[in-house]
Amino acid sequence: MSAPTHAERHGTAKAALDQKIDPETLEVAPGTVHESVEGWVPDLASESELRDALEKAFDYRGDVAVTKKDGSKIDGYIFDRVTGTTLESSFVRLLPRDSNQRVKISYAEIAALAFSGRDPAAGKSWEAWVRKYWEKKSSGEGSLTLQPESLE
Predict the structure, then answer these.
(1) Which pLDDT tens digit goes with each residue over 20-34?
(2) Rounded distance, CA 52 to CA 46, Å?
(3) Among 59, 58, 55, which Cα is nearest to 47's?
(4) 3-state per-residue secondary structure call for 24-71
(5) Distant-in-sequence, close-in-space partners of 136: CB < 8 Å, separation ≥ 6
(6) CA–CA dist 44, 50 (Å, integer)
(7) Most buried among 71, 85, 94, 122, using CB within 10 Å?
(8) What is the C-alpha to C-alpha distance for residues 94 and 77, in angstroms, rounded to an integer?
């Protein structure tokens, strides 16, 4: 005696075999749309605006200029963040552009943000790469490879 299959338990085995599956009608999860924040200087008037801007800064692939309330500025790549219940218990960690030292800054210390650096991966989607590849191939360019271009 064998256990029924998943489709048999749900009474759909025969129906699934009788139907052709159309991939165009299957459920498809939507993709993620990344908004361009390069060059953006957000208003940080409220706690929610600060938290939203720092989430976008964490997702951003370029450098962000952080101005602290004491007037000092740090320009670098935000690679980590911890969101606590208060601004004092929340912080970001970044790699400064001019140093290998990792810096930890509390949300409560941040006065301003500026998305200063160029996003090195902007426009580097698979579709854009394939389009460029076929354009080069159709133009007869001889040195085509299937290796990706450098991000820099």
Answers:
(1) 666 666 666 665 555
(2) 10
(3) 55
(4) CCCCCCCCCCCCCCCCCCCCCCCHHHHHHHHHHHHHCCCCEEEEECCC
(5) 144
(6) 5
(7) 94
(8) 5
